[in-house]
Write a structure and sequence with these properties.
mainly alpha; 3 strands; flat
Length: about 140
């Protein structure tokens, strides 16, 4: 390799921004960093869950007193801590969808019982899963 070729390669490499290392974890997109807060010993700053903040702001528009009950906790910036928060956070989309599904099942069972005039208990989660499996098997067997 000639010296001119080496200079040409280094100049073109510096013209493009080369990103080294790992990409940031997708979990971090659901949190906002608090750069003004002191960090831990590993240089990780605290974060706040965007779902908790959005729920608090949305509820504050309707009822400010109830919005004060929603805590926005400061979470250490490690991916493990952020994931742990998302597993228990009641404001994530997955948690909201499961709550809606549970209330929908309760309402559907009550509507079914009232339409027939018979007492009917709502299905348990295990019964719902069993029905889903049976439905999927039935659909798989009866495909054209």
């Amino acid at each position: 390799m000639r010296l001119e070729d080496h200079d040409e390669l280094t100049s073109t490499a510096s013209a493009y921004k080369v990103i080294m290392g790992r990409k940031p974890d997708r979990v971090r997109m659901q949190f906002r960093a608090l750069p003004n807060e002191p960090s831990n010993n590993f240089g990780e700053v605290f974060h706040v869950c965007l779902h908790c903040e959005a729920a608090k702001e949305g509820l504050a528009r309707v009822d400010e007193v109830a919005a004060q009950d929603i805590e926005t906790k400061k979470i250490h910036g490690s991916v493990v801590a952020l994931r742990r928060h998302l597993e228990v956070c009641p404001h994530t989309p997955a948690a909201r969808m499961s709550q809606k599904a549970a209330t929908h099942l309760d309402q559907a069972a009550a509507l079914h019982a009232s339409s027939k005039g018979l007492p009917c208990a709502p299905l348990s989660n295990a019964q719902v899963e069993h029905m889903r499996k049976c439905l999927v098997e039935y659909q798989a067997q009866h495909r054209p």
